[in-house]
Amino acid sequence: MSGRKSNGGRGRHVSGSRAPVAALAGVPVAVGQVVECDIIGLTHDGEGVGRYEGYTLFVRGALPDERVRAEVSSIGKSFGRARTVKVLKVSSDRREAPCPIYDSCGGCQLQHFDYAAQLRWKRQHVISSLERIGKLKVSADDGDGDESSRTTEHSLVVVHPVIGMDKPWRYRNKAQVPIGSGEAGLIGGFYEQGSNDVVDMDACLIQQEENEALVRAVKSVARELGIPAYNRATGRGLLRHVVVRHAQATGQRMVVLVTNGLDIPYVDEWIGLIREQVPGLVSVCQNVNTAATPVVMGDVTRVLWGEEVIYDEIGDIRFAISPRSFFQVNPVQTERLYRAAVDYARLTGEETVIDAYCGIGTITLFLARYARRVYGVEIIPEAIEDARRNALLNDIRNAEFEVGAAEVVMPRWQSKGITPDVIVVDPPRKGCDPALIATMLELKPARIVYVSCDPSTLARDLRLLEDGGYRTVEVQPVDMFPHTGHVECVAWLVRD
């Protein structure tokens, strides 16, 4: 790599740095030590991967092909972490981060990285995961779109370029804002990188502006009324989080006050003052969470004023969204993600489709437009209630939903004669439950469409499905979260 020093890229200690503390045996650096190192890659969290005397350092704020001066912040036997003090050799892909609190806020990791370069890196991250973890052979080209070439036996997996955004800012339709206390009283924003300290903020460049206005109004009124912020250390205080949603298609807005207890002082005044400041507000809800846990929401939710849901649209499908509904936060990219899933399902109108992890029915209802019958299964009862409501809302009558674990419900469906031609899965970040993988292999659908939010667990599960008789044909990455280290994918598998 260009820019390496004569020491072979081993890095060097910088004299004059503050005294390092207690190094580990066999580790060439100590906490507080300032070193110079070359950056050879990025982690999945967007940290630069550097090497110093053969030791790996994950360097916050550094980019590939840079040489940086970095201060070591933590060490372990296999790797340590550091923060960039000075960039000595600057990457051509480095950009000035537009956010004024980017260096302290933990919401984004890649604003300093050119957006086109982010997309290239995310694609390579997917390829590396498939090759390293999934042991899959990936095509060096992007495919030519020819059906016969893509389904040839023994063909390589095609990983397409990442579908990015023309305007990769202001895309989030939901904000979960932690509340804390500062010198001026109640504050709210994001957690500082690597800590539970709240960074106060009134503007976020990846949030829709409507959400910013709603959060500002809630904080302002809370300060005016003297509402105490929750303190995680003592367990005292009332307001823990403010969760806001903005439905881009309808303009409707919802606010959820997450509180440490049921009673809210001055609740009528609070609601009245928020409504005065925020046009389009149709729902104010409360969620009660008294547990000493970082989980945002508890089990009890009630409507304080207005409607229990707001309505939004993806494509031509309308959705009712309740306070605890999972609904993708980037509406523009969500439609592209779901269109890719429908495309890979290869539906002719005669198929039976099962959607595991169906949530509130978002993908299920897209599939229903093109299939004979679709079945959605989800372990969360409230989500299934929302899914059934959304099917009625869109007059979709060929969709059926059931509560339960997919690996339990799907064999029961099979015993009733329901045999899937296609199975679609959209699991959480930890990937598919091993029992579900086994169930899919037993049901032997002709095609599996795997929607993933984590390339590592996707690669792991694709390996299991390949070993069970399936072949991964294509993977389409979609950039749902620009300027972060996250990338979503849709994988298309056929029974071999």
From TrEMBL:
Keyword Isomerase belongs to the record: no
CDD domains associated with the record: AdoMet_MTases (cd02440)
Signal peptide interval: none
Residue ranges constituting the TRAM domain according to the UniProt record: 28-86
SUPFAM superfamilies: Nucleic acid-binding proteins, S-adenosyl-L-methionine-dependent methyltransferases
Record's keyword annotation contains Nucleus: no
Binding site for S-adenosyl-L-methionine: 328, 357, 378, 426
Enzyme Commission number, as recorded: 2.1.1.190
Group of enzyme by EC: transferase
UniProt GO molecular function: methyltransferase activity
Domain of life: Bacteria
Keywords: Methyltransferase, S-adenosyl-L-methionine, Transferase
GO biological-process terms attached to the record: methylation
Residues at the active site: 453
Family, per entry: Belongs to the class I-like SAM-binding methyltransferase superfamily. RNA M5U methyltransferase family.
PANTHER family to which the protein is assigned, alphabetical: RNA M5U METHYLTRANSFERASE (PTHR11061), TRNA (URACIL(54)-C(5))-METHYLTRANSFERASE (PTHR11061:SF30)
Name listed for the protein in its UniProt record: 23S rRNA (Uracil(1939)-C(5))-methyltransferase RlmD
Organism of origin: Cohnella yongneupensis
Lineage: Bacteria, Bacillati, Bacillota, Bacilli, Bacillales
